[in-house]
Automatic annotation (TrEMBL):
The lineage of its organism: Bacteria, Bacillati, Bacillota, Bacilli, Lactobacillales. It is an enzyme of class 6 (ligase). It comes from Loigolactobacillus zhaoyuanensis. Gene3D superfamilies: 3.40.630.30, HUPs. This is [Citrate [pro-3S]-lyase] ligase. One of its GO terms (molecular function) is [citrate (pro-3S)-lyase] ligase activity. Its EC number is 6.2.1.22.
């Protein structure tokens, strides 16, 4: 590395960022929209010969110029990004990479958690990370009977979520309820968890879980080396379900409940793949029609839009009293203010 140096590239550095984009494109990579750190590897002539980025606790958009490959620069680049992550307090790291690149990361101490055909490998730098997550999942002594599961983001918790959970609760002996714990939503995880628990407190056969980093949200799934939107959706679904199957087998799940999706193309395709993949391992996926109020399907996107527009009458129709009451508090009003400033309200 005596002939090279690594330095951060800031969003305001237009020319350097154009060089990063050009280098990534030569490697068949589009710059990920979710990045919070980017660096470049520069030679003695200050030419960009490599780049890499981070987002949260993931490494992303890694590339070395073709004529400099084989010089050990990728190893140095990844080591630099790991050092940056450690300085930020992120020690449990993840990387998504092409299948052909997976052996390189394994040599650096990463362990594969799941793979989607020939498209993608998901790895972490803690050898026992996922197995430790499985071990800490609460599993009641009673394992006989019908055991189901639901995964909710609850951004925010609505009467639709409540209806789905109540139906699963009534039709099964036990419900494992997973709350997406990644803080990438307009409503923070701690609030979403609180509202889910308050809105389901009347049910006595619910076991609550957090997803940790192992159930992936749309906002953090990497799409930078997948060729088109349809491939991105299908690959994310396949990876997510691959991980969920391992969770399901640990908890002896017999089914999973999901809401029907009349609006979001992403969720609709996801549900179709889920039904197919879970059936292959003997798990039934129940796709339940969405609850309606006043002939209108309830959706979290509609609730966020109503909050943005100060349409509290619509919010009140679509959420449990506990959720509505929260938005009357100081903390709730602060979140409404944040929603009003956002341009990303409705998910497609």
């Amino acid at each position: 590395m005596n002939d090279y140096n690594i330095s951060e590239i800031y969003p305001t550095e237009k020319e350097r960022n154009q060089l990063v984009d050009a280098l990534l494109q030569t490697e068949g990579i589009n710059r990920d929209k979710n990045l919070d750190y980017t660096c470049g590897v520069f030679d003695t002539n200050d030419e960009l010969v490599g780049t890499g980025s981070c987002f949260g606790n993931t490494l992303r958009c890694l590339a070395i110029r073709d004529d400099h490959q084989g010089e050990g620069l990728m190893n140095t680049l990844v080591s630099h990004l790991i050092s940056v992550q450690f300085q930020r307090g992120n020690t449990h790291l993840f990387v998504y990479t092409k299948v052909k690149s997976a052996p390189f990361f394994k040599d650096l101490g990463f362990t594969a958690i799941a793979q989607v055909a020939d498209k993608l490998v998901f790895l972490e730098n803690e050898a026992a990370g996922f197995s430790n997550y499985l071990d800490q999942l609460e599993k009641p002594q009673q394992t006989a009977g019908k055991i189901t599961s639901i995964v909710v983001n609850a951004n925010p918790f609505s009467l639709g979520h409540q209806y789905l959970i109540e139906k699963a609760s009534a039709e099964n002996d036990l419900v494992h309820l997973f709350i997406v714990s990644e803080d990438a939503s307009l409503i923070p995880f701690a609030v979403r968890k609180q509202l889910v628990e308050q809105g389901t407190a009347h049910l006595d056969n619910i076991v609550y879980h957090t997803t940790g980093p192992y159930i992936i949200s749309n906002s953090t799934f990497p799409s930078y080396f997948l060729k088109d939107d349809d491939t991105v959706i299908r690959t994310q679904a396949a990876l997510d379900i691959e991980l969920f199957i391992k969770i399901a087998q640990r908890l002896d799940l017999t089914s999973r409940y999901v809401g029907e999706e009349p609006y979001s193309q992403v969720t609709r395709i996801y549900n179709e793949i889920m039904v197919e993949k879970l059936a292959q391992v003997g798990i039934t996926c129940h796709v339940i029609p969405r609850r309606q109020v006043a002939d209108e399907v309830i959706s979290a996107s509609k609730i966020r839009l109503a909050l943005k527009e100060d349409n509290l009458a619509t919010v009140k129709r679509m959420v449990p009293q506990s959720t509505y009451d929260f938005f009357q508090t100081v903390a709730g009003k602060a979140i409404i203010a944040k929603i009003k400033q956002s341009t990303q309200i409705v998910h497609y």
